[in-house]
Amino acid sequence: MSKTLPVAQPAVAPVGTSAGSGIWLGIAGMLCFSLTLPATKLAVTSVDPLIVGLGRSLVALPFALVALLLSRGGLPPRSAMTRLPIVVAGNIFGFPVFSALAVHYSSAAHAAVIFGTMPFATALAGALRARERMSPRFWLFSAAGAAVTALFSFDSQRSGGIGLGDLYACIAVALGSLGYAEGALLARQFGPMRVQAWALVLGAPPVAVLVAWLAATRGVHLDLKACAGLLYIGAFSSFLGFIPWNAGLARGGVARVGQILLLQPICTIAWSFLLLHESVNDKTLLSAVAVCLCATLAIRARHKASGTH
């Protein structure tokens, strides 16, 4: 008698939990994510950025499989299977690969300013996907944030910075926001952790083939720092960091806890200074603060327009 694999059922959000603990869990998750660019920078110092960007999901794969087994996540239903490829394209291929290329051609602190546009880029992608009408204030603050980012990039390039890193960072933001937005819509039905695990499992076969080919043709030269960086972005940035982050969203509310992510660029710049000893000038810090402020105002304008609090 054949045994049928279970099909996942919609997740049920917990109720009656503490909003205060949700804030602290959200901060813990944000701090995990804020180390992504510095850890990626460590990895790409001796390993090809394409291998780093793709290989991080293979490092996360065992954690995803264990999580699915322990939670009895089962197989994605048909309704999710038609949409998960968007999550895979954005979260497993697009964002990791182009963020690795971005920090390969520029500093992690520099890239953090451009990645500061991620919150309202994701909000915009989600609104377009859900056919939500955006308020004029959202467009105003989003345009202001984009203008600050463009001016920062132009000024850095004129001062000797590498514009190619900025281009890769913008592509990472665009593709990542699409993946995150689609993942967020699926997470309402099945839970964020389950959706991320499904994406990692579905993306594993093509990723494994590409990594094997790249390793054979370009070679892999791992040192201790590269191993530490790759292990971190694979284990924490790609999966384990979502545990406190998603728990915080569930307990404290998406609208409140989600805005903690707006502090991530500032934390990333701090980690880049402390761990990588990168030079951080006033323009970088002020640009990061300005982008975070624009993102905060844009997200709040969207929440007011959509009636969420």
From TrEMBL:
GO terms for cellular component: membrane. Keywords: Membrane, Transmembrane, Transmembrane helix. The chain crosses the membrane at residues 12-37, 49-70, 82-102, 108-126, 138-154, 166-185, 197-216, 228-248, 260-277, 283-301. It holds the Pfam family EamA. It is a multi-pass membrane protein. Residues 21-152, 164-297 form the EamA domain. It is found in: Membrane. InterPro entries: AA-Vitamin_Transporters, EamA_dom, EmrE-like. Belongs to the EamA transporter family. This is Multidrug DMT transporter permease. It comes from Burkholderia lata (strain ATCC 17760 / DSM 23089 / LMG 22485 / NCIMB 9086 / R18194 / 383).
